[in-house]
Amino acid sequence: MELPQRRHGWLRHAGLYWLPPLLWMAVMFGLSTDTFAAEQTGGVLWYVLQELAPRVTYDQYTLLHFLIRKAAHLTEYAILACLLLRAFRAGAARPWHWRWATLSVVLVALYAGLDEYHQACTQSRTASVSDSMLDTAGGVIALALLWRNRRKPAGRDRHSLGGHDTRKEDAMRIFVGNLAWSTTEDEVYQLFAPYGEIERTQIITDRETGRSRGFGFVEMPNRTEANAAIAELNGTALGGRTLTVNEARAREGDERPRRPQQGRQPRW
């Protein structure tokens, strides 16, 4: 039973996160054919301009056509970069990681090069290194904007009153026990996601081996949603095991003040 479940989970993961960028690549491949060459799009643009602005000059039309096509290049690859970042993130609670961004840029650059090679094989289009660099720049700009937006501090008026953060008091840390060794943080995230916003998922691993220790934690900012998740998920099965889900408690040893260490006394 475990193998079919894992296979189903992998297919669901691939379809949810990797199918969108693959489909967008297919759309971009179609846009790189002769059907969307400059001669074809130029005729459509000229017809539209003649209807909307009959006095437009040929030089103005040429400049506008050039700018529209270059903007389309930037937009196509900006969308691709965002979809790739989403695929590498794969539902993780952490919104950003430089490894995800780096891999996304690498794939964007590779596809940009392959796209120019494809255009070189068509009848009415030619390859251009500058276009490939422009395509890659579109992906980099999109990721840079996402990174900048991630670094913006949240508005204080939403969760704070008079400088007092009410969101921290409302948050809950949930203990998830009896996890299968193969369970990932993404699977835990997907399990809790239907019940509300999740700030972080964490599976505790052994320091030496890196192997899961069979338990983890989920942090939810809304206590009501967290209680609903606990009520529904405690005792449910994941990866062939029955989960133990409850509010995480601090260990007694963490709350008691430690006795200051003193020098060792002689026995005599």
Task: Note down, in words, how this protein is organized.
With 268 residues, the chain is an alpha+beta fold. It folds into 2 domains: 142 residues, no CATH class; 81 residues, Alpha-Beta Plaits. It contains 10 helices and 8 strands. The strands form 3 sheets. It has a 4-stranded antiparallel beta sheet with strand order 4-5-3-8. Strand 4 and strand 5 form a beta hairpin. Helix 2 packs across helix 3 and helix 4 packs antiparallel against helix 5. It starts with a helix and ends in a 13-residue tail after the last helix. The C terminus is likely disordered.
Number of domains: 2
What gap, in angstroms, lies between the N and C termini? 66 Å
| Number of strand segments | 8
> What would you call the shape?
elongated
The secondary-structure element order is: HHHHHHEEHEHEEHEEEH
Concise structural overview:
By secondary structure, this protein is α+β, with helices and mostly antiparallel strands. The chain is 58% helix and 12% strand.
Which features characterize this protein?
single chain, 12% strand, alpha+beta, 4-stranded antiparallel β-sheet, elongated, Alpha-Beta Plaits, 58% helix
Question: Any chance you could write out the topology, listing elements then pairs?
Answer:
Blueprint: H1 2-31, H2 38-52, H3 58-89, H4 98-120, H5 129-151, H6 156-159, E1 160-161, E2 164-165, H7 166-170, E3 172-177, H8 185-192, E4 200-205, E5 212-220, H9 223-233, E6 237-238, E7 241-242, E8 244-247, H10 252-255
Antiparallel strand pairs: 1-2, 3-5, 3-8, 4-5, 6-7
